[in-house]
Inverse folding.
């Protein structure tokens, strides 16, 4: 199999693996005609996907029934799929000592504010989840359009770092 035919595994990390990293996994896996497969995990996984995250994914008609929070150690086991990319999406995991990922994947920080920490009325909380979703979607779209097979590791690192530094341009959609 050539590099242009292979599937690239992408792991999204956040502390509880209940919203932002789940968004990453679900969004990446919802793309058709791509050579990317998403996974997610957390350092302190919750018991279930946050209800507002699950509701939002369902409203966007993105399958999430099979997704659940899991500890990042799952992806260090011998039988785990090798990751090509690992993206932390919260500042907590950025400050933690992550496991050593087999295969030395390209890593980057794609920080997105934790919507589960937003306080206030239901509308404000839902808006926070939409904002996180749209920020992740914008990054996933840029990432999915990279010519991964034709970029060397240094250029790939530069590209995924730049994606992580981008500001969300979808605030209007999140405010809708």
């Amino acid at each position: 199999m050539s590099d242009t035919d292979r599937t690239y595994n992408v792991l999204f990390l956040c502390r509880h693996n209940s919203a932002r990293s789940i968004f990453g996994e679900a969004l990446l896996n919802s793309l058709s005609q791509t050579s990317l497969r998403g996974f997610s995990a957390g350092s302190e996984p919750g018991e279930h996907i946050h209800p507002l995250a699950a509701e939002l994914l369902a409203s966007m008609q993105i399958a999430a029934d099979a997704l659940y929070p899991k500890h990042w150690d799952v992806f260090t086991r011998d039988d785990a799929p090798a990751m090509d990319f690992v993206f932390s999406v919260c500042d907590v995991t950025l400050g933690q000592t992550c496991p050593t990922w087999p295969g030395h994947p390209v890593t980057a920080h794609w920080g997105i504010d934790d919507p589960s920490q937003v306080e206030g009325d239901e509308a404000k909380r839902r808006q926070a989840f939409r904002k996180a979703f749209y920020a992740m979607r914008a990054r996933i779209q840029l990432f999915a359009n990279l010519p991964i097979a034709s970029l060397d590791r240094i250029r790939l690192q530069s590209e995924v770092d730049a994606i992580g530094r981008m500001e969300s341009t979808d605030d209007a959609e999140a405010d809708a």
User: Anything to note?
Assistant: Residues 8-113+139-165 form a domain with the Rossmann fold fold (CATH 3.40.50.2300). The chain has six helices and four strands. The longest helix spans residues 122-144. Residues 117 and 161 are 25 Å apart (CA to CA).
